[in-house]
Write a structure and sequence with these properties.
The protein has 345 residues and is of the alpha/beta class. Helix content is 56%, strand content 15%. Helix 2 links the parallel strand 2 and strand 3. The radius of gyration is 28 Å and the shape is elongated.
């Protein structure tokens, strides 16, 4: 594949980070030998998602002796998927691997991913977790339920137990860059594109250091984002609830008419109270679901960026190099002028 990006490398590794200062030395110690052994030009794009610890300073300390490492910092914490988007959009490799910093997904698998992509001529290689015994039972069961539900919601093309550890070709990256997704969920978005794909299975390890960045609250948010971004099922649920309440109202009307004709006494307050509560509850649920989708439409119309890049070390290097070249050129011109003045003086 010919390079379509100025200064492109063969491989880019994108690593979103949030408060990962404790794990960075171990990550560098394992990742760099793997990439050096590939024998290709590469870059490592580390994206700091507004960390509150020493993540950025530790990255710069480890990057002094590793020129292939780039540091991209977001101005505020924007979330894992937004940080991943920033890295994917700024990566210049012909192949791009997304990797978490916690070393639960082994960097050694990258070489196998690249080999499979080249030999099988595919655009996507998914890292599939064959063994998750290091995760808690709760995490394994919730993940199993998530993928089971999403496969039925999105389609059977979704690889089971495949997170954000994957290899993408430049063609896929360019398609992702053109999509108008404001809050993409890549584990669902990438399979939906339909590019030729393959899988590489691996054993998921325990977190090397630090704390998990996906507690129950964020897992629930990811499940909702996945559902709302890729399916109108919640809206259909609101429709079915509305139809059910309408049929129930018809049944109550018929029941009331029969009771009236037969002369049976019906407690008016109780029936009215139950009916009002039932209808009000259904209406509120429907309004809540519709309101969430209207909020997404509003956010899309605003077209606000999901993240803001504070700086990119590669850009800083380019600016520094440009300034240095201009100084050299100015110095040479000054020397030329001085020599001319000296001759004619």
């Amino acid at each position: 594949m010919e390079s379509v990006v100025p200064g492109a490398a063969t491989l880019s590794v994108v690593i979103p980070m949030f408060n990962e200062a404790a794990v960075i030395p171990a990550l560098v110690a394992r990742l760099r030998p793997v990439l050096d052994a590939l024998g290709v030009d590469y870059e490592v794009v580390t994206v700091d998602d507004g960390s509150r610890d020493d993540t950025v300073s530790v990255l710069f300390d480890n990057g002094r002796d590793w020129p292939q490492m780039r540091v991209v910092r977001l101005r505020r914490n924007s979330g894992h998927q937004a940080a991943l988007t920033a890295g994917l959009h700024r990566a210049v490799g012909q192949w791009v691997v997304s990797l978490d910093a916690d070393l639960q997904d082994p960097p050694e698998t990258i070489a196998e991913m690249l080999r499979v992509a080249r030999e099988e001529s595919v655009d996507v290689v998914y890292g599939v977790r064959a063994d998750r015994s290091t995760d808690t039972a709760f995490k394994r069961n919730t993940a199993r339920g998530y993928y089971w539900f999403m496969r039925r919601l999105v389609g059977a093309d979704l690889p089971a137990q495949a997170g954000d550890f994957r290899l993408l070709s430049r063609d896929v990256i360019e398609v992702l860059r053109r999509l108008p997704e404001r809050a993409p969920v890549y584990r669902l978005l990438v399979p939906s594109l339909g590019f030729p794909s393959a899988e590489v299975r691996y054993t998921r390890a325990a977190r090397a250091a630090g704390e998990t960045k996906y507690p129950l609250r964020r897992m629930a948010a990811l499940a909702w984002e996945s559902t709302a971004n890729f399916s109108a099922a919640p809206l259909r649920l609101a429709t079915w609830l509305g139809m059910s309440s309408f049929l129930l109202c018809l049944g109550l009307i018929v029941f009331g008419m029969v009771a009236h004709v037969s002369g049976t006494t019906i407690p008016g307050w109780t029936s009215m109270f139950v009916a009002v509560l039932l209808l009000s509850g259904v209406q509120l649920v429907c309004l809540g679901l519709l309101g969430d989708y209207v909020g997404r439409i509003y956010a899309t119309v605003q077209n606000r960026p999901a993240f803001h890049v504070g700086f990119d070390s590669r850009d800083e290097a380019r600016v520094t190099g440009t300034v240095a070249r201009r100084r050299v050129e100015n110095d040479s011109r000054t020397s030329d002028v001085d020599s001319v003045v000296g001759v004619h003086g």
